[in-house]
Design brief:
alpha/beta, Rossmann fold, Calcium-transporting ATPase, cytoplasmic domain N, 6-stranded antiparallel β-sheet, 13 helices, about 40% helix, elongated, binds adenosine-5'-diphosphate, binds magnesium ion
């Protein structure tokens, strides 16, 4: 390899806001056949807002959510503040990864989370219907009190302006794309449709993201993983190329070989094109 081409490539990347930590990342980039995008914070802004509420559960939900650092938590607590609702103190709080939250509020057992959480506790949805929100790409927080659903809160996370073009560009380059998320299948499919991604890997528990990356690698794919969160770090490390979104967590930035300072999904095809140019100059 000629170090000058690599150095120039790294320099050009830096100008574009694409931080390439090691020269080897350029060689790996040239072998990528599939890019897996994390949904929340990578293809979407990662700043969901409450859009719909059914039932009177905002205060209860906020009691739990104010102890959580999930993006959904910020949406719910913000709305509770805006509406000036009374937010009681929660005790025995616990986060259940990939599902939601549990705690005691005024001596009542409260759950706030997805269908999987309700299933885990054997709580029937009865007439409550998350699906009509999910088919719009919204994520639904189901709130149950003492084993009975009392309401639902829907949040929506805007898709980044560059997401659809990034996917189109990669497909044009002959590179496959997929989206991975802990979110439910209906919501994920609605977002994927808007972005133009055909392959959806949904309802993945945080600890299983890396396993899904490993499965694709075993099938002979050169896999790039693009993510931002704490729970993305193992998948970033498992991928042939880990691409961290700059505004994400320190842990993700450390795990990635490439860091996108501008948070723009379009920098993914740009980085792979840059790598292609560098490698063709070396060969
Ligand atoms: P992702 O990074 O794709 O959002 P997570 O594993 O963080 O994946 O979350 C998966 C799902 O678990 C969320 O879509 C949501 O339904 C539920 N969940 C996680 N944390 C919370 C929370 N604090 N409040 C409500 N629901 C939550
Ligand atoms: Mg995420």
């Amino acid at each position: 390899a000629t170090p000058t081409a690599v150095t120039a490539g790294i320099g050009r990347g830096a100008e574009l806001g694409i931080l390439i930590k090691k020269g080897e990342a350029l060689e790996v980039s040239d072998r990528i056949s599939c890019v897996i995008f994390d949904k929340t914070g990578t293809l979407t802004l990662g700043r969901p807002r409450v859009t719909d509420m059914v039932g009177d559960v905002l205060g209860l939900a906020a009691a739990l959510e104010r102890k959580s650092r999930h993006p959904i938590a910020a949406a719910v607590t913000e709305r509770a503040e805006e509406e000036g609702v009374d937010v009681p103190e929660a005790e025995d709080f616990r986060a259940i990864p990939g599902m939601g939250l549990e705690g005691m509020v005024d001596s009542h057992h409260v759950l706030a989370g997805n269908r999987a959480l309700m299933e885990k506790y054997g709580i029937p949805l009865e007439h409550w219907d998350p699906e009509k929100f999910e088919s719009d790409g919204k994520t639904v927080v189901i709130v149950a009190v003492d084993g009975e659903v009392k309401g639902i809160i829907a949040v929506s996370d805007e898709i980044k302006p560059g997401s659809a073009r990034a996917v189109r560009e990669l497909e044009r380059m002959g590179i496959g794309t997929a989206m991975i998320t802990g979110d439910n299948r209906k919501t994920a499919e609605a977002v994927a449709r808007e972005v133009g991604i055909g392959t959806v890997i949904a309802e993945v528990l945080p600890q299983d993201k890396a396993t899904r990356v490993a499965e694709l690698r075993e099938r002979g794919e050169g896999v790039a993983f693009v993510g931002d969160g704490i729970n993305d770090a193992p998948a970033l490390a498992e991928a042939d190329l880990g691409v961290a979104v700059g505004s994400g967590t320190d842990i993700a930035r450390e795990a990635g070989e490439v860091v996108l300072m501008g948070d723009d999904p379009l920098d993914v095809p740009a980085a792979l094109q840059l790598a292609g140019k560098v490698i063709s100059r070396i060969r």
